[in-house]
Amino acid sequence: MFSLEAVKWINDQFKQTNELTEKTLEYEQKYMQLFYLKPLIDREMLQNSVIKPFFEMASENQFKLYLHALPQFQEATTKEQVMREIMNGSVVAVIQNEWYLLDFKLSTNDKVNNTSVETTIHGSQLALSDNLATNINVIRSYYHQPSLCVEYVVKGEVNQHKVAIIYDKEKVKNGVLDTIRERLQNVDKQVVSSTTQLNNFLNNKRLSLFPQMIMTERPDRIVYNIAGGKVILVVDGNPQAVATPAVFFDYMSTMEDNYHTLIISIFLKFLRYAGLMISILLPGLYVGVTSFSPEVFRTELALTIAGSRVGVPFSSFIEVLFMLFFMELLLEASIRLPKAISATATTVGGLILGTAVTEASLASNIMVIIVSAVAISTFVIPVNEMAFSIRVVRLLFIFVTTIFGLAGLTLGLYVLIMYLVNLDSFGEPYLQLYTSPKNRSKWERKT
Amino acid sequence: MLNKQIKNRLGFLLLLPLFILLSGCEFKDIDKDVFVAMIAIDQSDEADKPYKITLKLYEPSSSFKDAPQPTYSYLTQAGETLSEAIRLMEAYSDKELQFGHTKLIVIGEDLVQADKSKEILDFLLRRPDIQMIAWIAVGRPSAEKIIKMVPQGETSAYPELFNYFDHTGTESQYIVTTYLFNFRRDMKAWGIDPVLPIIRINEKDSHFEIDKSLIVRDSMEPHEFDPLNTSLYTMLTKGTDRADLAINEDDEYFIARIDRLKTKHSVTIKGGNKIELDIKIKLYGYISESKKNLDSKDLPFYNKLLKAESEEKFTKFFTDMKELGFDPLGFGLDYRSRTLHNRRMSKEEWEEAYRNAKINLSVTPQLKSTGSIQ
């Protein structure tokens, strides 16, 4: 099936680049042609496992059998596949019109990183790497089940990235898996370069605020999610995986919750939900209570706030927005800045700006306390994606409270809950407490 | 599909301006409000303006550490009605008067004696920003004098007078705490009469004295409780959980410190408009002061003395109340709650029956120790 024409076709395809190496080996009635992209392959490996044996083997037949036996060997079916594999770092050996695909890819990005986004005190400190094969290696070596399935899809018309769909066949919900496969089929993008991009591509919505897939870099979380019947998507060249279907409460848990004793993890969870409520509601509450119904405060507090607002030229909501704006700028700046400078930026922004603002009475003392409390409590939310969503929700609440007061804030909270109830992540209701693994009846499991 | 989307968008566009119009409360910054700490309502000297209102206003301060001395300002105005006086006062102040933090309403004694409490109550209840959990008290000689006094050692932002009533500061058996909502409820219902504390100032103008109280009923002359009766009243209504009772009998003199009280009261209906009042009181405690050496072995004897003494005091209290026609504990309410409306005595019949009721009072004393280690 592979004739000289095919060889010519492949040569044509790579005509633009001068990197395709074509090598002809001939020795004692043995004849072999090799095609590969030089920068992609491990030359030493090629030398040791193909070229050297070629000269040592007695007959061509023996060498063919040897190539078949190599672990890097892959069956070649179509010429398009061959071309793709060459681009992925395979070596094509052609012996008597028989094609042998050998994966000699040289990877420089296969070292696992340290956790940097989801840091914990307990548990593993290692995250995923940028290399898909390594990542799958990591996942497989933590999850020993024959039912663990890995499917590959190539996405991105231009950059042709490999996307792996990883799940436990025994535990995954088939509906979810089908939806993901179907939606992945429909992804029509030129470049797919990040796992979290899939979040936007797969949720079928133009405007979405809350993430429907949970991003993680921790292998233990991936394994935990696979065991819980979730589907993991990993994109090559990305140290993050996404797990789906994700419910709201997944975003509020860390892997450490499982590593602590029960009471401690309940306490930590309480802290986290309190932080969530504070970061959503506190700025809105400040506006609502100071400007609409000051009788909610204790008398001393009302008087202190009234006193500290003396001389502040703005209304309470401008004051809140003004301070929050600077806080958001500070957050954004400290992400973008090199690590060495970002510490300085937070000091200048947080400490100096905070005191200077109150001294110039551009904002009240209480306001500075509120903004810092809000900033700190936003950091308590363990999954970064949710923290970003919460920052936006907070602004909406300030807006609603400025117009409608405390009643507006309460109704706004209802609207948020209604919105969350309405959301679903790949068929799973967003506000359910946990995703159930697979809807199988009990007797079925016994048999 | 598209049609539906357009409909949704149109609906949203229609709703948006309506939302803007909806704003319920008005937006007003907190530094444009002035908070009223207390309201004093007195009878004025002018005939056409019978009410004189004095407001005690907080002066806001950014740091109470810098201003340890309390600062208040006062507004006084007489008016034909309470609303009129307050409306005039709003014109005297540069900021909006906020009654949301008003914790105490003091009514001048003249007004209470003149049986005006119902009218005042009406105003206080209708004004939405006056909290129903405000305390209400009677000021002697006048309410204005009470709220204008700043006792020595008062800290800013929390007037000392509030500590008397909020059960976080002093807890005395002589202080009656009456909330506005309670006062209103007891005032409107027949079968129970509200009791208001009387706030007085001592002769040197240095502190308050709150140890008396006043029982009020619509179209009846109020009756004043002396400190003893006030303390019996708070004990009976569980307004206090700590009380002292002095026992002076048969050359024994000691003070029983009660630290737990249980009271039960109910009406027993005996046919033919005859009723009996059952009161059961349990007193737990110890002896806190004595002029003699006491022996633990004699505790049953001291208990007996306590029983005799307290029964006598309580019986006298109830007999007095019965004869005057006041009902501080709400026997009438108890009666009404347990009879069907068509078999119930009329108000007049009940009052007659109450006056002639028999009192069955029993005290169970539970003195646990003589208070000293032996």
Explain the layout of strands and helices:
The complex is a heterodimer of chains A (447) and B (374).
Chain A: H1 4-13, E1 20-27, E2 30-37, H2 43-56, H3 60-69, E3 73-74, H4 79-87, E4 90-95, E5 98-103, H5 132-142, E6 148-155, E7 161-168, H6 174-186, H7 195-202, E8 214-216, H8 219-227, E9 231-235, E10 241-244, H9 256-259, H10 262-291, H11 299-308, H12 316-336, H13 339-359, H14 365-380, H15 384-422, E11 424-425, E12 428-429, H16 442-446
Antiparallel strand pairs in A: 1-2, 2-4, 3-5, 4-5, 6-7, 7-9, 8-10, 9-10, 11-12
Chain B: H1 2-21, E1 33-43, E2 51-58, E3 72-79, H2 82-92, E4 96-98, E5 104-108, H3 109-113, H4 117-126, E6 135-139, H5 143-148, H6 160-165, H7 180-188, E7 195-201, E8 208-215, E9 223-225, H8 227-236, E10 243-249, E11 252-270, E12 274-290, H9 299-324, H10 331-337, H11 347-355, E13 358-369
Parallel strand pairs in B: 1-4, 1-5, 5-6, 6-7, 12-13
Antiparallel strand pairs in B: 1-2, 2-3, 7-8, 8-9, 10-11, 11-12
Helix pairs in contact in B: 4-7
Main location (chain B): membrane
Domain Spore germination GerAC-like C-terminal (chain B): 224-371
Protein name (chain B): Spore gernimation protein
